[in-house]
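Weekly sync, protein design subgroup
Attendees: M.S., D.O., the rotation student, P.L. (late)

Item 1: inverse folding check
M.S. brought a backbone from last month's batch and wanted to see whether the design step gives back something sensible before we order anything. D.O. pointed out we never logged the input encoding, so this time it goes straight into the notes. Structure tokens as presented (339 positions):
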């Protein structure tokens, strides 16, 4: 009997279990009513009287030993279950790849920031517009080619609902709803019905600026442009204004800056002229002021508009416009360290 007890003890001592079902199986095998340890107790009756004390003690010890062992197996499983080896909270975090601002957002912010320093505040308008705000209020003649389907996306062929082709539409909205002094900058997306290529896209981004007050002159416009160009491209930058035509400004001009790649010496980027064109501008046509409810006898103003893609190309020499909308991370990640 004692030999059987010590054999069982060795057997129990060596037990292992990898899950709760196995622990329960072992409990039943040894400790249940029909279990092997319990069976020993039943056999105890047949033990000769002189051995009863020793054997009884050994059986009790075995029972305690088996109970402890089964409990230990169960506890071991529970604590193993709580401990997730894959999660070490003391480890230094693995480096996350940071995203980067889109180059167009970076440049838009920079443009806005420069004008904000001059007291301009942001105004926004809808991308789905009507003819009045995009064309008529801005002095476009009825037969102006920009109204043509070739340039403008009309919605459901309704001539009055269209995607704005320029952010100048925000000018007229603001002038309709407020009186001078007006000093606003309008960033936004615009749409034109163009075949997509390296140099043209069916959507792009513009920033428009408008200043209307008493006695605003072309000199104010010129100084604002010079300040903008030098803040954006560096203090060595020169500007040049060429006469131009826009329906909503009179006089109108286009502004060139000295080529920021060759410093005005002439290179392939500026087609050896030393100058690159960056924006359109002019004095707000009195017809536009009147159409928007502003007295053109008391007030005058200047407006300017530029393409954000164009400025971004100049700053970062992006050769293909399509890069801006393809979301290729190899392109976008190059701007991680930009402001
Ligand atoms: N709206 C013009 C365009 O899309 C840009 C422009 C030119 C805006 C002259 C102006 C301006 O405010 O004065 O090409």
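Designed sequence read out in the meeting:
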């Amino acid at each position: 009997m004692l030999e059987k007890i010590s054999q069982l003890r060795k057997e129990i001592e060596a037990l292992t279990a990898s899950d709760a079902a196995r622990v329960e199986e072992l409990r039943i095998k040894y400790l249940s009513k029909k279990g092997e340890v319990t069976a020993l107790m039943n056999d105890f009756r047949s033990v000769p009287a002189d051995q009863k004390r020793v054997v009884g003690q050994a059986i009790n010890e075995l029972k305690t030993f088996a109970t402890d062992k089964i409990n230990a197996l169960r506890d071991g499983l529970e604590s193993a279950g709580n401990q997730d080896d894959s999660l070490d909270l003391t480890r230094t975090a693995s480096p996350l790849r940071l995203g980067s601002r889109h180059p167009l957002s970076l440049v838009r912010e920079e443009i806005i920031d420069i004008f904000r320093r001059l007291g301009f505040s942001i105004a926004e308008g809808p991308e789905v517009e009507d003819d009045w705000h995009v064309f008529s209020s801005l002095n476009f003649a009825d037969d102006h080619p920009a109204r043509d389907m070739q340039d403008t996306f009309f919605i459901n062929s309704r001539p009055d609902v269209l995607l704005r082709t320029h952010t100048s539409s925000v000018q007229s909205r603001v002038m309709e709803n407020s009186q001078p002094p007006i000093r606003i900058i309008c960033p936004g997306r615009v749409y034109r019905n163009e075949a997509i290529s390296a140099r043209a896209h069916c959507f792009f981004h513009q920033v428009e600026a408008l200043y209307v007050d008493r006695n605003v002159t072309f000199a104010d416009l010129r100084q604002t442009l010079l300040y903008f160009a030098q803040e954006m491209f560096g203090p060595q930058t020169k500007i040049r204004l060429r006469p131009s035509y826009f329906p909503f400004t009179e006089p109108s001009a286009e502004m060139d800056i000295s080529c920021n790649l060759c410093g005005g010496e002439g290179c392939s980027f500026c087609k050896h002229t030393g100058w690159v064109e960056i924006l359109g501008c002019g004095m707000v046509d009195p017809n536009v002021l009147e159409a928007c409810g502003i007295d053109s006898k008391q007030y005058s103003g200047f407006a300017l508009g530029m393409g954000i893609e164009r400025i971004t190309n100049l700053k970062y020499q992006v050769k293909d416009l399509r890069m801006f909308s393809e979301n290729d991370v190899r392109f976008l990640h190059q701007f991680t360290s930009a402001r």
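Discussion: The longest strand covers residues 203-213. Residues 166, 168, 208, 246, 249, 280-282, 303-305 surround 3,4-dihydroxyphenylalanine (CB under 6 Å).
Action: P.L. to compare against the previous round before Friday.
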